[in-house]
Amino acid sequence: MQDIIEAIKISAIKIAKEIKKEDRDYSQNTNSTGDNQLKIDILSDIIIEEELKKVTSIYEIVSEEKDDVVAVNPDGIYKVGYDPLDGSSLIDVNLSVGSIFAIYKNSFNGQDLVGAVYVVYGPRMDLVIAIDDVKLYRFIEDDFKYVKNLTLDERGKYVSTGATQKNWLPWHKKLVDKMFDEGYELSYSGGMVPDLHFLLLRGGGLFSYPATIDKPKSKLRMVFEIFPYAYIFEKAGGGAIDGTNRVLDLKPTFVHDTCPSFFGSNYEIELVKKAYNL
Length: 278
Ligand code: AHM
Ligand code: MG
Prior knowledge:
The protein contains 6 helices and 15 strands. By secondary structure, the chain is of the alpha+beta class. It has 2 domains: 2-149, Fructose-1,6-Bisphosphatase, subunit A, domain 1 (Fructose-1,6-Bisphosphatase, Chain A, domain 1), CATH 3.30.540; 158-276, 3-Layer(aba) Sandwich (D-Maltodextrin-Binding Protein, domain 2). The protein has an 8-stranded mixed sheet, with helices on both faces. A 5-stranded mixed sheet has the order 12-11-13-15-14, sandwiched between helices. Helix 3 links the parallel strand 11 (158-161) and strand 12. Helix 1 packs antiparallel against helix 2 and helix 3 runs antiparallel to helix 6 (266-276). The longest helix is centred in the first third of the chain and has 18 residues, at 2-19. Residues 64, 83, 86, 225 line the site of magnesium ion (MG).
């Protein structure tokens, strides 16, 4: 898998340079979920595809910006699902964004994940690699230097909860109110990469992107966004559920399938299960 990690590092350095270049307009294209694609989304997708295609151990790839899988090497053993630039609309307001990678064997199901990686493009560039454990690297001068392993405490201090609040379901609102009553503080930037990174570096808490009245299957995509972070949170000693079920046990019905998602330390995941046990 080291060859995949090296390709990710090269892509990240190239994307970080592109982000800093200029303001980017919306392109005329839409992706499979119907979002307007920013030019930088497309460019990041191309950069990553070019680098991953050089890796002989990869069988096929698919990204949030692609309708279908792309064949790489018929003798490869890994499948890579990636979100080339998550939260890209936040670039205009100078907030952090990220790239997310999920490394699978056999299928794009959660149970077939063998590694997950993400990059945060912020004031600094951070790289987190989860295989057996979760390691934080930071880009210093011209390379990613190991900083430390990331592990979650049994209980955190922060709540990071997405989706339009007026469309939250009553039990979700009750859960969030209860957590604020227990002393949790709000932490939310609107980008899942920096929001989840914050929790991982601060030892825990709860990030959620719940189902809403208008979007019962929620927004975040399983293959590119939810599964990789579920893998990372579990390897760091926490968990990830859709309200009731472990997300890594779910099977997407199509590659862009979505589901509600909750990532946290063990105490917060138990709070969610109780609140969603309807
Ligand atoms: P994107 O992949 O189109 O960038 O969408 C994913 C992002 C996540 O980073 C974030 O958690 C979520 O969308 C916020 O969405 P919204 O502002 O629509 O609630
Ligand atoms: Mg995304």
